[in-house]
Design brief:
Cofactor: Mg(2+)
CATH class of the largest domain: Alpha Beta
CATH topology of the largest domain: Rossmann fold
Family: Belongs to the HAD-like hydrolase superfamily. CbbY/CbbZ/Gph/YieH family.
InterPro entries: Beta-PGM-like, HAD-like_sf, HAD-SF_hydro_IA, HAD_sf, PGP-like_dom2
Radius of gyration: 17 Å
Protein name: HAD family phosphatase
Structural class: alpha/beta
GO molecular function: catalytic activity; metal ion binding
Largest sheet: 6 strands, parallel
Length: 229
């Protein structure tokens, strides 16, 4: 691709926040005496649209305890997660260097609700790289793993699906971007990834997997016109 659009997920790709979300969610599950396998949970829950995530978590609680997720529990989970993300958020190593060196247009497509999405990008010092190109699952009828958000972002940026390269760290995100007809790079550079090979992302359909933003920059330079000469 000589002139691609880069579509970035936020959590786990731009900011190192997924480990925080997982810690909060596993603390909550343990408070309910629920133990689940981490890789299973990551594959099932990560990057889901908020309504899908809430429904799925409620189903898990109902199955394990006989009681679904309450409104109070959901509100408390969101409150703790958001507070900790804003207090602890930091950009993924190398992302600032990557974005500064990119010549290609770029945008964000995240399941994070508005207005929290631009707030945490600003807190991490990355909002300046994206301007108005920040798109939330709130903006479409069906969030990840549906293709709607990726298609919406491409349309708003004025690019056809085949000219888009999406960078995702979750199987649900990979599935959504592939369903939208986009080229997908799986990213395992976030602190939540233990299997840096990204086998789960490849299995979900990722066309290529990178372990860092430096590796992503090298791949883009070798295969596209996205980087400055």
């Amino acid at each position: 691709m000589d002139d691609p659009l880069l579509i970035f997920d936020c959590d786990g790709v731009l900011i190192d926040s997924e480990a925080i979300y997982l810690e909060v969610e596993f603390d909550f599950l343990r408070s309910k005496d629920i133990e689940v396998e981490r890789d299973w949970y990551v594959g099932q829950f990560m990057a889901l649209a908020q309504d899908k995530w809430r429904a799925k978590l409620s189903d898990l609680l109902l199955e394990k305890t006989g009681t679904p997720l309450t409104d109070d529990d959901y509100t408390a989970l969101k409150s703790v997660s958001r507070r900790r993300v804003l207090e602890e958020v930091r950009p993924i190593a190398g992302v600032d260097t990557l974005l500064k060196a990119m010549a290609a247009p770029r945008c964000v497509a995240s399941s994070t609700q508005m207005p929290f999405l631009p707030l945490k990008l600003e807190q991490a010092g990355l909002a300046r790289f994206f301007g108005d190109g920040v798109y939330s699952g709130d903006m479409v009828e069906n969030g990840k793993p549906a293709p709607d958000l990726f298609a919406y972002a491409a349309e708003k940026m004025g690019y056809a699906a085949e000219a888009c390269i999406t960078v995702e760290d979750s199987a649900n995100g990979v599935r959504g971007a592939k369903a939208a007809g986009q080229f997908v790079i799986g990213f395992t550079g976030g602190g939540h990834w233990t299997d840096k090979s990204g086998a789960a992302l490849s299995d979900a359909g990722a066309d290529h997997v990178v372990t860092s933003h430096a590796e992503l920059a090298d791949w883009l330079a070798a295969n596209t016109g996205a980087m400055r000469a």
